[in-house]
């Protein structure tokens, strides 16, 4: 089969490799769609904690969906041809520790371990394999490309669960990329008016069309900065989905006294902020790490799928670019180009 192999930084090569072997409890998935995540882009740029080691090139791609191609001998509930979304296997956990029992397997010390080895999904390929427990059957009306965005939506579901908001309370979201916009859609579906801040007009236009925000402020313009500055202290909760050097400081300026700042975006370098501003606001700053099942034992991935199936979020509107696997390097270049207007670049089979 053809698969992308990552040799470090922007060195991404389409290579012919063996189809993964299927263990007794696993399912082989013919990949139909795989999204390029913001964390993938950081690695491509040589930034952040998840860079590829040139000495040990490997596959990647954790936002994926497809069709069942084969099942292991102990697998029940799935058949060849079934349409599925795959919860990424780097979120596998031991299942028995106190954190796992509380639905917080994303914090488990054994996260991402399987049979004593670190594992991760490799959806930028014609086929990938996963334990059957990581697969979610898709309703017929849910598109495969849209389902590949469920990982992003699950992050938004989890981030919203971390705070307590009265009905109808407004929130601000910093960042107009896929994580910011999926979170915005989730918050709006929960009845919270979203103001989304960014500095790319094209992606802010997508946010309005996709229902990711009711209001957008383009902070690359004087008008957008004026609106932002006038709203200092106005939001009970601010989500930092930008992960830029100054986004935490900007979030602290927007949050109301006693409010919450939830950091959802990955900061590849230490953020800069004024601790006295946080002190004056008496703000709580918390980090949101992936997702799990910490509310009622229901997986956040399942909640995300329910939102998508009900039409409460519009995943298709966020897919700005669709490219075949053979053009994956072009997909990375597109997402890296701030003038391309990309929100989600989807690699489709």
TrEMBL record:
Pfam families attached to this UniProt entry: ADH_N, ADH_zinc_N
Alphabetically ordered keywords of this record: Metal-binding, Oxidoreductase, Zinc
Coiled coil region boundaries: none
SUPFAM superfamilies: GroES-like, NAD(P)-binding Rossmann-fold domains
MF-aspect GO terms: oxidoreductase activity; zinc ion binding
Cofactor(s) required, per the database record: Zn(2+)
Domain of life: Bacteria
Record carries keyword Metal-binding: yes
Domain Enoyl reductase (ER): 9-347
Matches recorded under InterPro entries: ADH-like_C, ADH-like_N, ADH_Zn_CS, ER, GroES-like_sf, NAD(P)-bd_dom_sf, Zn_alcohol_dh
PROSITE patterns recorded: ADH_ZINC
Family from the record: Belongs to the zinc-containing alcohol dehydrogenase family.
Name of the featured protein: Alcohol dehydrogenase
Organism: Phytohabitans houttuyneae
Organism phylogeny: Bacteria, Bacillati, Actinomycetota, Actinomycetes, Micromonosporales
Gene name of this polypeptide: adh_1
